[in-house]
Amino acid sequence: MSFPFVPLLAEIGAFLIAGIVFYGLKKRFGWTIALFFLLGSILWTTPLETLGIYTGSYSYSAFAGSLFPGYPGYLVWIGIVPLWIEMGWFIISASSFMIFHEVLMSRSRAIVIAAIAGLFAVNLDLMIDPVASSNSLWVWLGPSMNLLGIPLYNYVGWFIMIFFYDIIIWSTVVGFRRLKGLSVIESKLLFIKQYVQQVSLRKRALGFIFRIAIFEITAILLIKIASVVLV
C-alpha cells in the first residue's frame, strides 16, 4: 500500500472506532451523556494540542502535500489540530470510563477510579505513541528525556488529562457533585447550588464548561512544569 495513504487510514479508522465507542456510551448512559462526553472531549483536548503545536513540541504536518497539492496531511481539522487526534482522546477516555466505573464503582472512590483510568491511558500510549510517531502520524520535536523515543512529559500529560477528564465527567455529567474549592465559586457565578442528579441541563452545561476551563488551565500548568523538569 502506498505510504501517503497511511494517515488517511489512521484518520478514517479513528472516526469509525469513535463511532463504535459513542454507540456504547449511548447504550449505557443515553444520548445526553454521550454527547457531553464527545463534544467535551473535543473542547477538552483542542487547547492543549494547539498549544503543543504552537510551542514546537510536535507536528502533524509530515504528510502535508502527500496525496494532492495543498493536502494538509489530514482531511478534517479543528484549527491546526487534526480532528482524529481529538477522537483518539475520546476513544481512550470514554472506554476507560465505561470499563472502570462499571467494574470498580461499588468498591472504590471516584478519584481512585480516575487515577486507574489515567494509568490505563498511559499504558495504552506506551504502545500507541511509538508506533504512530515512527510512521510520522505525528512527529516529536526538540530535546527531552524520553522513553521508547517519546518525551516522558507526554506520558505525564496523558495521565493528567485522562485523570482530570474522568473526574469532570463523573462529577458534572453523570451526576452533578460538589468539588471542593469550586462549589462556592459555582454557587456565586453560575447559581448552581444543587449537587444532585436533578440539576438542570442548562446549569449542567455551564458547570461542565466552567470546570473544563479550570481543569484545563491546571493541566496545562502541570504538563508545562513536567516538560521543563524532564527536559
What does this protein look like?
This protein is mainly alpha-helical and 231 residues long. It has seven helices and six strands, in the order ααβββααβββααα. The strands form three sheets. The chain has a two-stranded antiparallel sheet. Helix 2 (31-54) packs across helix 3. The longest helix has 29 residues, at 201-229. The model has no long low-confidence stretch (mean pLDDT 90).
Key descriptive features of the protein:
single chain; 231 residues; two-stranded antiparallel ribbon; 7 helices; 5% strand; globular
Short description:
By secondary structure, this protein is mainly α. The chain has helices spanning 5-29, 31-54, 83-104, 110-134, 152-174, 183-189, 201-229, and strands at 58-59, 77-78, 81-82, 139-140, 146-147, 150-151. Strands 1-4 form a two-stranded antiparallel ribbon. The protein has a two-stranded antiparallel ribbon with strand order 2-3. The protein has a two-stranded antiparallel sheet with strand order 5-6.
